[in-house]
Amino acid sequence: MYKWTYLPEFVYGSIDGIITTFAIISGSLGANFSVSVILILGFANLFADGFSMGISNYLSEKSKIKKLKKNPFKTALATFLSFVIIGFIPLSAFLLSKFSGFFYLNQIILSIVFTAAALILVGYIKGILLNKNKFYSIMQILLLGIGASLIAYGIGYIAKLYI
What we know:
globular
């Protein structure tokens, strides 16, 4: 196996990108928002949160001064790009629903399937990176994603009722 210098940043950015984006989708679905609102909130979160994570990563790496082993700009870029690229996956079904009847009719299910597949892939990569049991790593990431999406859906649903 090849060692990739910025693989930890890829895993970190990807996990957070997928989970926070799908949480936005779940909360929006719980609140019964339209596809347009889901896409607006999803893309706003994708880029603002990805930017924030990238900058935070940069500042974190810069604060390591003497133990600095990685280029802070590259760690920030790896975090941002993985957050945005992999985090886009849950939104893709909703975006494609604007152009395809099949995606329109199945957008929620397809978003769940795409999100689960992305979480499984990132969990597997995480297992490789940490030299841990791949199944355990996948299940850990999937359960984190399920938990976050259920919380977001519930908050969206309750907020819609009482706000």
